[in-house]
Specification:
InterPro entries: Sel1-like, Sel1_AlgK, TPR-like_helical_dom_sf. 51% of the residues lie in helices and 6% in strands. The chain is built from 37 helices and nine strands. Strands 7-9-8 form a three-stranded antiparallel sheet. It has a two-stranded antiparallel sheet with strand order 1-2. It has a two-stranded antiparallel sheet with strand order 3-4.
Length: 883
């Protein structure tokens, strides 16, 4: 292989007469490697960018008058052995003597970075080159051999006075099998041989004498300088105007999981000349495009593509600011995501997508938007980040998310690209949403046997996305993909068997497919398997096993699993009740925009569950959930506006939110709306509408609505009176352990309402409801014990129940009867002053029948004292205000 340097060098003879020597570019025969030097300092002789391939004997000549000289062929530079692709490029620091000085002592020795100013040749013979400094150079016929043979990583230096030395770089080629200079950062790329462009921004360019502290070695062999060289210069200085900053990735950039918002990537900052940088990027792009075409053709033909991945890996260690490098990184990520030329590795694909996406590559951004939204084994779901990446794609005017996918899809028919491009049209990433285009691309991918294309095609048929809905066809494609091991299709197939979509409902088969997908790490399937174990669907009910699967899914960031796990911790399902953990998992899911978790987190703030009670924050989270259409949040907002929780009381606003949830068949909201119509809260009172909404809620099995409906039938509210239906609905509600209904069933037995009278059953039911802390049941049980109706008379127990209902539940009739007992000394020592107090409390809480008892008691007290004292007594009890 022959390579000629095309650069202008200034040679100065002993008479300080400058003569320009030119190295003329010629055709290179075996490689496309062109190595470029740079201008040298005026008044010094520099031999820059001399090329010395490892273990290759080389004769290097410079000629003037455009004449070429060589011992073998008429070329400016001859490499006797072709430079194989297993060489990598390396920059090495060198110091050169000032050849105008007479005390220069220039020697050749063998070794690595010799600090004694020597480079020993292969035969370990030392040749003295001191005569070079004083001997005049015949510029008319300059057959000037720089050296006869070099060892890899040779350097020049001089042991003389340091004032005679200037520092510059020697571009050196070394075998990749050897260790590189310890001061260089070298991506160990194998078998890569690209065009090399690069010019040192040298000390002479800076017009200062300052050593370049470090050099860098890349797969393209860039002749570049460490950033530390310029630490004392401003951006406005001339060197910076001529230089281009480049960022060379360190190995850790692709081996660690960097943060999406990271600004400090693991790179080495270096500089090169702007003119050379343009050529560098142009050459990279030219070579990459040629390789890409070969790669896509090979994929279509089903031939080996591993070599392309190796070369692509080498390019990833070039300048991150170069468009084609960022694109190459994204394509390499795509290869790992879909197993093209390498084993499929989702986590590794994410590690490649991130750096190029951070640097503005839209293809990488679009893939991250998808992976963070839906997840894959090894990639944690984060829908907040997914939305951010999608937004970056939308705002990206310098890079296209779809151009490469379109080329690979339409020109080369790459099934994986067709699937990925379909996703862009599906979610509107980089393009407008187009369900028909998405479907057609999925279909093309699926027909080529791509399992992911088949799986998503099944989804389209199942949901009627871009095609007429056909659930049986959906199952067919799910099955094709699932049998190829596609975990998403396995999950969807399980869902079909769970709900009977396109197939007969078979919970056992649902669990089977969920388990297959879950074991592959599919977060959706893990959550569903947890649900099956929690509810006993197709498997024995096992709350602990449910929590296990919820945890596995939640750790992968799946928001439904995070919310479900929080619920388990809140109510102690399969795990010890832990409100702190409940709030933690709700918060994680809520931050991802999960509506139900946002609602549940609002509930935690409203009630102070492991967080400081903050009703305003509760309303904020309810609103966030409501914005996503969560009907629970609609109802909760209605409650807040009705009761002034975290907001001012706004009854019309409350009714608005109740209606929004009620029309979506939310039973609690239907009940609340019925209550508003029943009592004229925020709307005009309307018993017919109240009955209608109670009835709608009761149809869904809401226990409170069933009880309210029973009351409507009992009293004839909004419907003709029907005591049997009243008893029927009371009983349905009571069967769900509603203490209100249990008490009402007891009252129906006591009074014979819609059923034959049975006092013993009445007392039995009163006692059950009373033990469930129902105030009215306590009062009814107290009356039965007080009078001995349906049970043995027990005045002390009667007082105990009256007092409990009065003190703990502010039950007005119980207050009244407690006052009676205290006034008359029934089951308790008589205390008329205490009796007066409880009569007053009963009146304040709405029991108007206590007014006459209070007046009667006060009259009695007045007759027991003299007139003056009675006036004082009457003034001490404000009967009128209580009434």
């Amino acid at each position: 292989m022959f390579v000629v340097i095309k650069r202008r060098y200034t040679m100065v003879n002993s008479d300080s007469t400058a003569k320009e020597l030119h190295a003329i570019k010629s055709e290179h025969l075996d490689s496309e490697d062109i190595f470029n030097g740079s201008f040298t300092d005026q008044g010094s002789e520099y031999l820059e960018n001399c090329i010395a391939p490892g273990n290759v004997n080389s004769n290097i000549y410079f000629s003037s008058n455009d004449t070429l000289f060589s011992s073998a062929k008429n070329t400016g530079l001859q490499l006797d052995s072709p430079m194989a692709s297993d060489f990598i490029i390396q920059n090495t620091l060198i110091e050169t003597p000032d050849l105008t000085s007479s005390d220069s002592n220039f020697t050749e020795t063998k070794g690595l970075n010799c600090n004694q100013g020597s480079v020993i040749n292969q035969e370990s013979q030392v040749s003295n080159f001191s005569s070079m400094a004083s001997s005049p150079i015949d510029s008319s016929n300059a057959h000037f051999p720089i050296t006869d043979s070099y060892k890899s990583r040779s350097i020049y230096s001089n042991t003389s006075n340091s004032k005679h030395f200037k520092t510059f770089q020697l571009l050196n080629i070394s075998s990749s099998s050897e260790n590189t200079n310890r001061d260089t950062i070298t991506p160990n790329s194998k078998k890569t041989n690209f065009l090399n462009y690069g010019r040192v921004i040298s000390v002479s360019d800076l017009s200062v004498e300052k050593k370049i502290k470090a050099s860098h070695n890349t797969s393209l062999g860039l002749n570049i300088v460490d950033k530390s060289t310029f630490t004392s210069y401003k951006v406005s200085d001339t060197p910076f105007k001529l230089s281009k900053q480049i960022e060379i990735p360190q190995k850790s950039l692709y081996t660690t999981n960097i943060q999406e918002d990271s600004k400090d990537l693991s790179t080495t900052i270096l500089y090169m000349h702007k003119d050379d940088y343009q050529e560098y990027c142009k050459s990279l792009k030219s070579r990459y495009m040629q390789l890409e075409e070969e790669f896509l053709i090979s994929l279509k033909a089903g031939t080996n593509t591993e070599k392309f991945v190796e070369i692509l890996t080498a390019i990833t260690f070039e300048d991150l600011n170069c468009d084609i490098v960022r694109h190459s990184i994204a394509v390499l990520g795509f290869c790992y995501e879909f197993g093209l030329g390498v084993k499929c590795d989702y986590a590794k694909s994410e590690r490649f997508y991130k750096p190029c996406a951070i640097k503005g590559n839209a293809l990488g951004q679009s893939r991250l938007a998808f992976l963070k939204k839906y997840g894959r084994p090894g990639i944690k779901i984060d829908r907040t980040l997914a939305a951010k990446w999608a937004l970056k794609v939308k705002l990206n005017s310098e890079s296209s998310a779809t151009s490469w996918l379109e080329k690979a899809s339409y020109v080369y028919g790459l099934a994986e690209a067709q699937y990925a491009l379909g996703l862009c049209y599906h979610d509107g990433i980089g393009v407008n949403v187009d369900d028909k285009k998405a479907f057609q691309l999925y279909l093309k991918s699926a027909k080529q046997g791509n399992s992911r294309g088949q799986g998503i095609l099944g989804y389209c048929y199942g949901e009627g996305f871009g095609v007429k809905q056909n659930k049986q066809e959906a199952v067919k494609w799910y099955m094709l993909a699932a049998t190829q091991g596609e975990s998403v299709a396995m999950y969807n197939l399980g869902y079909c068997y769970e709900d009977g979509i396109g197939v007969a409902r078979k919970p056992l088969l649902a669990v089977l497919w969920y388990r297959k997908a879950a074991k592959k790490g599919n977060a959706f399937a893990q959550n569903s398997l947890g649900y099956c174990h929690e509810d006993g669907l197709g498997v024995k009910k096992d709350p602990k096993e449910a929590v296990k699967w919820y945890q596995l899914s939640a750790m992968q960031g799946y928001p439904w699993a995070e919310c479900n796990l929080g619920y388990c911790y809140q109510y102690g399902i399969g795990v010890k009740e832990n409100p702190a953990q409940a709030t933690y998992w709700y918060l994680r899911a809520a931050k991802q925009g999960h509506a139900r978790a946002q609602h549940n987190l609002g509930y935690c703030y409203q009630n102070g569950i492991w967080v400081e009670k903050d009703e305003k924050k509760a309303v904020m989270w309810y609103h966030k959930a409501a914005e996503k259409g969560n009907i629970y949040a609609y109802h909760s907002l209605g409650y807040c506006y009705q009761n002034g929780t975290g907001v001012g009381i706004q009854l019309k606003e409350a009714v608005k939110w109740y209606k929004m949830a009620a029309v979506k068949n939310h039973p609690p909201a239907q009940l609340s709306l019925g209550y508003c119509y029943r009592n004229g809260i925020g709307v005009e009172k309307n018993d017919n509408k109240a009955f209608k909404w109670f009835q709608e809620s009761a149809k869904s099995g809401n226990a409170l609505a069933q009880n309210s409906l029973g009351y409507c039938y009992e009293e004839g509210i909004g419907t003709p009176q029907n005591l049997k239906l009243a008893f029927h609905f009371y009983t349905k509600s009571a069967s769900q352990n509603n203490p209100w209904a249990i008490c009402n069933v007891g009252y129906s037995y006591a009074q014979g309402i819609g059923v034959a009278q049975n006092l013993e059953k009445a007392v039995y039911l009163y006692r059950i409801a009373a033990q469930m802390n129902h105030g009215r049941a306590m009062e009814k049980l107290g009356l039965a014990l007080l009078e001995g109706v349906g049970t043995e008379k027990n005045e002390e127990q009667a007082v105990m129940w009256f007092k409990k209902a009065a003190e703990k539940f502010n039950h007005a009739p119980a207050m009244h009867w407690l006052g009676v007992c205290l006034e008359r000394g029934i089951g308790v020592e008589a205390d008329q002053v205490e009796a007066i107090k409880w009569y007053q409390n009963a009146i304040i809480n709405g029991d108007s029948t206590a007014i006459e008892r209070l007046r009667s008691l006060l009259v009695i007290k007045c007759n027991d004292v003299n007139k003056n004292n009675s006036s004082t007594l009457l003034n001490s009890f404000d009967v009128s205000s209580a009434a």
